[in-house]
Amino acid sequence: MSLETEIHFILNGRAVSARIPVAMKTLALLRDVLGLTGTKYACGEGECGACTIRVDGKTLNSCLMYAVDCEGRDIVTIEGLRTPAGMNPMQQAFVDHGAVQCGFCMPGMILQADWLVENNLRLTRPEAQRGLEGNLCRCTGYTKVLDAIESVVETQCCKQGAPGGELQPAREPLMRATS
Amino acid sequence: MNSKTSPQPIKKTSLIGQSVKKPDAPDKATGKTRYINDMVLPQMLIGKVLFAGRAHAKILSIDISAAQKLPGVHAVMTGRDVSGLKFGFIRDNVALKDRVRCEHDEIAAVAAETEEIANQAIELIKVEYEDLPGVFTPEDGAKEGAPQIHDEFPGNRSLSYEFSHGNVAAAEAASDFVVDNVFRPHRVTHCCMGTSCAIADFDHNGKLTIWTQTQYPYNYKMDLAPALGMAPGDIRVIQPPVGGAFGAKLDVYPYEPIAALLARKTGRPVKVMYSREEEFKASPTRQTAIIHMRTGCKRDGTLTFRTADVLLDNGAYTSWGPTIPVIMMRTTSGHYRVPVVDFRARAIYTNNPYAGSFRGYGNVQTTFATAQQMDMLADLVDITPLEFHLKNAQKSGEVTPQNSFLRECALTECLETAERASHYSRKRREYAAERTRVGRYKKGIGLASSIHNAGGAKIHKSDGIGTILKLDDYARATIITGASEIGQGIDAVVTLIVAEELGIPIEHVTIVNNDSDIAPWDVGVHASRTTFIAGNGARRAAHKARAQIFKGAEKHLGELADSLDLRSGWVVREKCGTPLIKLERLLRQMHFQPEPELVMVTDYYEPKSEPEGSKHVSDHSAAYAHAVHVAEITVDTFTGEIKVDRVTAVQDVGRVINRMGLEGQIEGGVALGLGYALSEDMRVEQGRLRNAGFRDYKLITAPEMPELDLHFIESNCAEGPFGAKGASELPAIVIAPAVANALYNATGVRIFDPPLSPEKVARAIAEQRQQRSAERLDRSRSPAREIENEYCALD
Amino acid sequence: MKAIATGDATVLCGGTDLTPQTDSGARRYAATLMNIRRVEGLNAILDVGDSIRIGTLTTVAEIRCNPTIRGTAPILADAAEHFASDQIRNAASIGGNLCNASPAGDMSIPLLVLDAAVELSSWDAGAICTRVVPLDAFFLAPGRVVKKPTELLTAVVFSKPAPDFVGHFRKSGPRPALEISTVSIGIGGNFSKGIFRNVRVAMGAVAPTPLRARGVEAALEGQRLDSEAIRAAVTAVGVDVKPINDVRASAWYRNHLARVFTEEVLNHVLGN
Description:
Radius of gyration of chain B: 28 Å
Radius of gyration of chain A: 18 Å
Number of strands of chain B: 32
CATH topology of the largest domain in chain B: Aldehyde Oxidoreductase, domain 4
Oligomer: heterotrimer
Order of helices and strands of chain A: EEHEEEHHHHE
Helix content of chain A: 25-40%
Largest interface: A-B, 61 and 63 residues
Number of domains of chain A: 2
Structural class of chain A: alpha+beta
CATH superfamily of the largest domain in chain B: Aldehyde oxidase/xanthine dehydrogenase, molybdopterin binding domain
CATH topology of the largest domain in chain A: Ubiquitin-like (UB roll)
Strand content of chain B: 15-25%
Shape of chain A: globular
Distance between the termini of chain B: 89 Å
CATH superfamily of the largest domain in chain A: Beta-grasp domain
Strand order of the largest sheet of chain A: 2-1-5-3-4
Number of domains of chain B: 4
Largest sheet of chain A: 5 strands, mixed
CATH class of the largest domain in chain A: Alpha Beta
């Protein structure tokens, strides 16, 4: 397939266009054409989730998605989560809770985590576990990823629920370390 | 100082034991970090490898003409280009092969302008093979008349090891119980999320810069040089951020010299990166083993002897895998107090994929055996299982038959803590009593412990590390350390220690540890040594810096050097905390006054351990540590699925330095060990890997993680930094036998060949039921009572 | 439709099966790669009186969450619930899953239980022609279906189950969901006054294609659903299934699981 085509879409809030081979995948478009290397290749067949991006609000494996299918759509990658204040709450929570070790899987993990919490402000830990089944991590055992997600849920829940905005004490975390 | 207000004293606070954020975490969480896999250099070419795809063959001819002619191809190389350039632990490997010894042998390599062109070129290379009969088990490899894999290694024999202490026959005669089993720890692989990648570039003086995922950047030069026919000193090693390593990068593997050879030939930077499929097939695996183990004890519970006879599948080439007996024997002789030991191991070449080192290195395999045999004996002796473990647990000050000196030993505390936290003994009794009751789901609880190096392992001439520390005019510190960051969090530990010692915020400490032209030597990130060794190096360097600072204070302020401390960015009087001068101001005074000086110090730290030695009787680590895991599971006896509900993980960590980082390492280690125990399995048949992808090679996922209850025992290791010991391998080692013991507790089924997959468990339970049913029939001589599910019949 | 009429087009929607297959070389592109994801009218779930019509582009995620499906055919929502991961569910189309014709075919199993049929459309002499093929006649072999290269699968349809219809789905795997099934089964039928009628039993990954287990159906049809009937059904499983040994599981284990799941699902039906 050596044919090329031009595509136009919204990427991280800005209109972009690119001229690409028709069989190119979105993952290659992002990394090799647009220079956004935050989204990772780790398996290329939709099993590991390291390439997770958001397309029209939903999370997808960008390694399976044809780049031509970005046409007219709203794409968000890890680079697009920044707020003027810096990191978004999920990113900050991942850093604060020690969820990042080698970090290679984290862009995909964070995007999926964000989507899970947006879809369900009362996300429980088991639901979060289920929701991350398509994101593989070899370093962390997922524990602190789940801690981070729980903390974001609690903050958001409290924002929604308590008029004064006071953070309620966290419920007993499943995992505790004692010395 | 402002004399109007009396200065508030600054109290001593400590970061030790706190949770600190990993310095590189924000960049990683925002996608900013450029991993080696993300790197693009100007004029860079893409390198691709043609793999043999067959297990054992002669190469009759290679026709690269069509590939060379393809527009965009800059080089095509074959074994002809590297003949004589042997490398490897016993010099049995070469970057491009003239003969096929395993499926992933590298036959040719291409450098081209794009990945697409490189792949097309690979397709155009025509190779004529003559297939040879293959050898796929070490037993077959050792047979008389077996096909020879390497001419220089007759009988397919590579390495062998022995250690012996005491009289086994006498010890056996004195034993009341002996358990005798064959364990077959299986083939798994690292599955780093970032696939193997190297970028090489030569300068005009023939000096090589290689960007690599290596975990041992300095000895790496020594190992890479012969593959290229270069001097090691002409190699500069740069370590960009990596997506994991876990021991896969402790040796030179062919794709690295291939990148360099292509770079040298083309005069341009060349990047070689594996696809996931190539990663599964071509990167080193964990070493498999066939372990015939025997353990004996008296009825009062005293262990009498332990022997292990180990056969290793060397695979096609010798990397770290076949050297694991060095650690296997330490477990055999040191896991609990064992007075008599015999250990022998030999590695036999086959046409299978070959093994490197992998987190847990030989101890994963051996503890799977020792901890199950302990569990078996526990049911035979006159005392309770917990008493059996405690009775044989070493105490501080004991020495093992191999002279491992357990200066601070917390096995007893670990066992007692595990018991308290998990109610192990009571549950073990309760669940065992439920075993024969009719019911689909059975609960089980299993305990396993192990011992591992926690202060390095002196298998090289030096187990040390160089450190350089400097302070600038603003009291910002830069620590230049030989210790590599591979995701394990040494960056946080080292900067924490420097911040602690210098009394400055951790954000004011920069770590540099990724360029062999800049940072001093370290033997490598392995053997759970890095917190201990690099931590000590950082601490010693910081002490030297403190000494220089306090001398400067003496000179410039007239204070007594040994009455001072550094706190919150100030130089203070140690006793009362009275602040005297801001550290940065003192540093500027030291710098810009007559006889100027900068605070710049260096240190080389060699741990107080003994070289391994060929007799293997040595205190080869500066510290040892224990862990005890208790796994609680629910077994679906119909499907064979094991659900791990809860893990109590107790570990002697010496001292917690970065709490969050340490927890993360334990949690990740448990996940790795659970994958080993339950679901990971490389299916290699006739030398070919059948499941080269995440679809059919199963890593543990988030929903499968159990509840974790972590306990850290602080034995305060005298030699360790702030008392800390190394920690990261033990959790990966201990969890699998804990699960295996829990399976036995729940069902009466023991599995000696991991993984404990649903199918294996279902089969074992079905066999057990058939056997019981047959026994009942024999005994009662009347129609057997209905067995609970009739579909357990084996075809 | 005209583009497909040449017979030389590879149809693409979510790419969740097409991409790994073309990337690995297991499948080659035809002359035309046709992305139908945006074609209008092919992605609706419609309640059309006494049947449900699911457009070919409907994603597995949409099926999972759709109130009509959850209300009238929960067995289909169950299978969607256990299908791969969120990221795959958000992209994978029902048409793609069916045409991929994997022996495991997670979405095929509940559809077979629902007696579904597929609509195949083609361009013939200036007009769109449609034929309807029952799903249990659609699969020929792994990766092969009766659909011609000149046809496009445009919808899946099934009659709304009667109020007394009970249907359940069960699949296996070391990984809870992201698993190309070691074994999956669906059982459904009209269950009233203890009698099980119009029984449909479908199984995945125990034969070259998703299987209607006719022997098991016969053992249950019109019978009182009690432990004896369940035992007979379980025995019949061993006759119906033809599993293979592969890297995921042995034939023995697939057989074993098929029987375990059959008993489990029937007990579930009984429990209802």
